[in-house]
Amino acid sequence: MSNKIPTQDQSPNPVQIHSPKLMHIDKAKIFPRSIRGFYQNIRHVFMAFILFVYVALAWVKWDGRQAVLFDLEHRQFFIFGWTFAPQDFFFLSWLLIIAAFTLFVVTVFAGRVFCGYVCPQTTWTTLYLWIEKITEGERNARIKLDKAPMSVNKFIRRATKHFLWLLIAFATGFVFVGYFTPVRSLAEDFVTGNLGGWGYVFILLFTVLTYLNAGWMREKVCFYMCPYGRFQSVMFDKDTLIVSYDTERGESRGARKKTVDPKEAGLGDCIDCQLCVQVCPTGIDIRDGLQLECIQCAACIDACDSIMDQMGYQRGLVRYTTENILEKKSGYHWLRPRLIGYSAVVLVMMVMFVYSLAARVPLSIDAIRDRNQLYRENSEGLIENVYTLKVMNKSQQTQQYHLTLAGDNTNIQLIPIDDFNLDAGEVSNLPVTLQADPADLAQSNTKITFKVEAVADKNVTAQVESRFLSPSN
Ligand code: SF4
Ligand code: SF4
Questions:
Q1: From atom 7 of ligand 2, which residue's Cα is the shortest distance away?
Q2: Is 164 in the same domain as 284?
Q3: Distance between Cα 262 and ligand 2 center (Å)
Q4: Which residues in the chain come in under a pLDDT of 50?
């Protein structure tokens, strides 16, 4: 049990967690054996869904526009019917905080299930492993091929594998960039060679990253690069569901004939077949206890259950369970302060998020002063300041807007402009001029406020402050 992770109850100091096995894993190549079973079926459904959504979502249209698009060039973010401006960035931050707390809840409840079932790194690695199995064969064939000198057979298998890996990596990189620049025009420009240099660079970058992460680095990303794996134990308690080996039932381990009664032979239920180790994508032995490397993929559960079935033993020698259930034979404890606390925080934040989103004013305005000239004097001797107003319709319908100068500063006049229409999500750059008689101005730097309101709904208003500059009196 030297590699065991202390839970919060045992050690409040997560910094002391270390894993001597990492040294061993670093040097040894891992050839995970494929396994079927209840949990692997669930995982594969989740992963197929994630891959499908990732690729398909980029191509879905909503109101004639790409449904999910983070248009960095025009500083607009579209998520289905919603349009966000950079000023709405706090919604994204908030969403990330909710996601983090949701992850805490899930981790307190069921350990690293996120890693095993929905993490993109695990998802892509599983897909790559499946291709490796198709092109190079099952575990034993892959080990043999790895040791064999280069031959035509080995070359063809390896080349096919890397070609398919690169193809998937390219599709992944292309779709990823397609979330930041309209994917249809990206495809057209890519094919016709009209994509700017940066477009090619980013697609290449994400292609290479996917290929290296999922094809070459695999579990090493989880060991060395993922921060979540490092702080997970802080959230574990003795009632967290984790993949565990039932030592009491399994030991003493040892081979035996199916016909032998283990009790009579002084043996536990573990036949020491090593299948749980062979299927582990991180190359660990779950019988050594909970380990930092374990991503809770449950492959060892499915493997061991298949052995238990063959031996005619009860399933569950390796299973999802808690330390308290294993040690004290107690039931599962739902009412734990940490689980309730995190869940309550998530719930409150979600309610507040939905409320804020619903109450969000679907209009934004920004004022940019003319940078070339602080002010100018017209033929009538009046001082003029020129601005560009950036007005964005963040609603889902075309709107007509009316611009005024708010506040009680009547000495400064807005040269009137007509009411203007903006389509859903459209941004307009309005040139606007203010003028004032210098004799009426008490100071050379006056605060002014532009106000835009929707003609159809006076509650939809947005204001922005700026300064009116004039020569000193
Ligand atoms: S020990 Fe079991 S659950 Fe953990 S990573 Fe290995 S196979 Fe998956
Ligand atoms: S698969 Fe089950 S029986 Fe085989 S070594 Fe692992 S724990 Fe023991």
A1: 270
A2: yes
A3: 14
A4: 1-26
Kindly report whether the peptide bond that precedes residue 252 is cis, defined as omega within 30 degrees of 0: yes
* pLDDT tens track for 157-206: 999 999 999 999 999 999 999 999 999 999 999 999 888 888 899 999 99
Q: Which ligand has the shortest distance to the CA of 307?
A: 2
Task: Give the residue numbers spanning the domain of 104.
Answer: 1-360
For residue 268, give the ligand nearest its CA. 2
Q: Tell which one of 39, 249, 318 to mutate to probe ligand 2, the residue whose CB is within 8 A of the most ligand atoms.
A: 318
Last residue of a domain, one of 309, 335, 360: 360
The pLDDT of residue 9 = 41
Among 360, 395, 414, residue at a domain's last position: 360
Same domain, 340 and 453: no
Residues 278 and 370 in one domain: no
| Ligand 2 centroid to residue 295 C-alpha, Å | 18
Ligand 2 pocket mutation pick from 287, 305, 313 by most atoms within 8 angstroms of CB: 287
The string of DSSP letters for 145-187 reads HHHSPP-HHHHHHHHHHHHHHHHHHHHHHHHHHHTTTTHHHHH
Residue with structure tokens 């033929």?
379
Q: Please tell me the residue having the least CA distance from ligand 1 atom 6.
A: 280
Residue nearest (by alpha carbon) to ligand 2 atom 4? 273
Ligand 2 is surrounded, with C-beta below 6 A, by 245, 250, 253, 270-276, 287, 303-304, 307, 317-318
Q: pLDDT for 300-349, tens place per residue?
A: 999 999 999 999 999 999 999 998 898 877 777 878 888 899 999 999 99
Name the 3-class secondary structure at 39.
helix
Of the ligands numbered here, which is closest to the C-alpha atom of 256?
Answer: 2
Percent of residues in the chain assigned helix, strand, coil, to nearest 5: 45, 20, 35
Q: Give the separation between CA 228 and CA 14, rounded to whole angstroms.
A: 12
Among the listed residues 241, 256, 239, 244, the one whose alpha carbon sits nearest the alpha carbon of residue 301: 244
Residue 413: give its domain's CATH number: 2.60.40.10
Asked whether residue 199 falls in the same domain as residue 287, the answer is yes
Is there a single domain that holds both residue 376 and residue 285?
A: no
CA of 177 from ligand 2 middle (Å) equals 44
Q: How many other CB atoms are found less than 10 A from the CB of residue 308?
A: 18
> What per-residue string of b and e applies to 359-376 under the rule 16 or more CB within 10 Å gives b?
eeebbbbbbebeeeeebe
Same domain, 244 and 318: yes
Closest-approaching ligand to the CA atom of 33? 1
Look at the chain and report how many structural domains it folds into: 2
Neighbouring CB atoms inside 10 A of 278's CB total 19
Q: Which of 270, 306, 311 to mutate to test the pocket of ligand 2 (most atoms within 8 A of CB)?
A: 270
CA–chain centroid gap for 452, Å, is 36
Nearest CA to ligand 1 atom 8: 297
